[in-house]
């Protein structure tokens, strides 16, 4: 289950990659713009502002996120990224920090490219920090008993692999950025991963086991990401971006 409030606790940090991704899309007057995995909808409205004449379609697999998006005024629905297909008038598809949850997403992306009309744009970004201490420690503390809850050691491709996946498109723009984010609070990195990476762990544990897990993970994260004298913590976060025009 997704917790929109936990996810939005770092809304500003999570929004920056979205805007940098969409900023590389050069569509002038798209007919239909789709936000694949719209989350709580806080960023979807910017797509309507960017392209006011377009039909903006938004969906997410989480009913909790869709409810939050609807509360925010977004016409969102529950749908599955693994089965969704773009309509013939879809000129822009945006997927922000979603595809890392889908093991078969390279095949899904290829399917979207085949279905999109000529001149359409596809833009997505995924986290690229799975080798960083945050994710490594999540797995170490989980141990072999919870190995099944993690999709893969490397849920995303490398930038060159994404470029190759999009290689037949007329325009291909793939890059990576490491954001050194300044977080605050006693356990800011723990709070960050609570909203995303720790979801499958929480779902697999009882309340008692979850409390024990967090009690072991928290000091390890504090050691890996030490607090500065001013009370803030630096959290490097690598992201991989891909934008293509069919």
TrEMBL record:
This is Trans-aconitate 2-methyltransferase. SUPFAM superfamilies: S-adenosyl-L-methionine-dependent methyltransferases. The gene is tam. Signal peptide: none annotated. Pfam families: Methyltransf_23 (PF13489). NCBIfam families: PRK14103.1. CDD domains: AdoMet_MTases. It comes from Lentzea pudingi.
């Amino acid at each position: 289950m997704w917790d929109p409030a936990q996810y939005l606790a770092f809304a500003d940090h999570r929004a920056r990659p979205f805007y940098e991704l969409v900023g590389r899309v050069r569509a002038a007057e798209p007919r239909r713009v789709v936000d694949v995995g719209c989350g709580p909808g806080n960023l979807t409205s910017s797509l309507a502002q960017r392209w006011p004449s377009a039909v903006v379609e938004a969906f997410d697999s989480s009913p909790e996120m869709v409810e939050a998006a609807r509360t925010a005024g977004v016409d969102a629905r529950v749908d599955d990224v693994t089965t969704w297909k773009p309509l013939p008038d879809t000129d822009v598809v945006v997927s922000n920090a979603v595809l890392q949850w889908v093991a078969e997403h390279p095949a899904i992306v290829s399917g979207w490219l085949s279905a999109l009309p000529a001149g359409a744009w596809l833009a997505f970004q995924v986290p690229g920090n799975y080798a960083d201490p945050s994710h490594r420690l999540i797995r170490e503390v989980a141990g072999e008993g919870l190995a099944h809850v993690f999709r893969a050691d490397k849920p995303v491709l490398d930038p060159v692999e994404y470029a190759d996946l999009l290689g037949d498109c007329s325009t291909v723009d793939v890059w990576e950025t490491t954001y050194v984010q300044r977080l605050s609070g006693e356990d800011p990195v723990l709070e960050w991963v609570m909203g995303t990476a720790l979801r499958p762990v929480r779902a697999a544990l009882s309340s008692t086991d979850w409390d024990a897990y967090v009690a072991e993970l928290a000091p390890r994260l504090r050691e890996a990401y030490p607090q500065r004298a001013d009370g803030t913590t630096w959290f490097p976060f690598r992201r991989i971006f891909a934008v293509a025009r069919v």
